[in-house]
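Pasting as-is:
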Amino acid sequence: MSQRKQEESVLNESETKFRSFVENANDIIYSLSLDGTLSYVSPNWTEILGHKREAVIGKHFETFVHPDDISACCSFLQKVKSSKEKLSGIEYRIKHLNGHWCWHRSNAAPLMDQSGKVYSYTAIARDITEHKLMMQRMSHMAHHDTLTGLPNRASFTEHLNQAIILSQREQQTLAVLFLDLDHFKPVNDQYGHAVGDLLLQQVAHRIRQCLRNVDIVGRIGGDEFVVLLGNVVHLANAQQTAEKICECVGIAYEVNGKILHIGVSIGIALYPLHGHNAMQLMRYADEAMYEAKKLPDRVQIYASPPLGVGFNKQEKVKPDDPSITPADDLG
């Protein structure tokens, strides 16, 4: 009896320590039945996610997990069951009581009976929301201009490459517009770069307003912008969009109480008429932009297409061209 009491005392002490560990852990410790019902959650579930434990236990995990992540979570648990081994690394979104989504990463292990059959899961979840947000910010910074929030050169080129592949498959044409601001340097010289930066932000906003939702505008450095127009049927459509941008950008700006006036010169190149890859289209649009600076209307379509085929700015992209098929006009 003395030995039995001693063993019970040791067991109780061990259980007390384990309970204290679970209840004071920074991560959420939880258990799931084979069908996905939560059979236990540690107290810090409430601290981290807001729900009271009694409102969680007995509910299926799908009640709390983002619909887009449920399939991955089910597959993960199935792998734990079939492998009968601890697995780690599943990441998913889980709803906070106040309605926003938190990111969690879980490890899970199977619990087995004496015959080796899995009857439930025990798991540990760590909140990685801050890490996810930081990674998203870093990814955004890597692909976007920090001043205007527009895609940077690398991101725009990626979009352009994808658009070329799509246009080739759909036998459509696209246009690249290369924009360079006129009279911007005097603004920087006279009023400073802080005012110049605010002006660039307003310019970016105005360009975006001139485009469709499917079009893409990027800033590739200094006072240079690029625009991608997809599914262009007529050269005149691309020209009209460029002229609209010129008109909008040319309206006076108010920055820090100062009235500023600038303009923009735009060169245009088209796929597949002028080039078949992003590098060619960007280069030809850039060359056309320098020609545009000599013109009153500041818009120029690249005038030296391959194979010596010349065309006028108002000429249509011919539907009988084997590489181009009719589509809805660019509006």
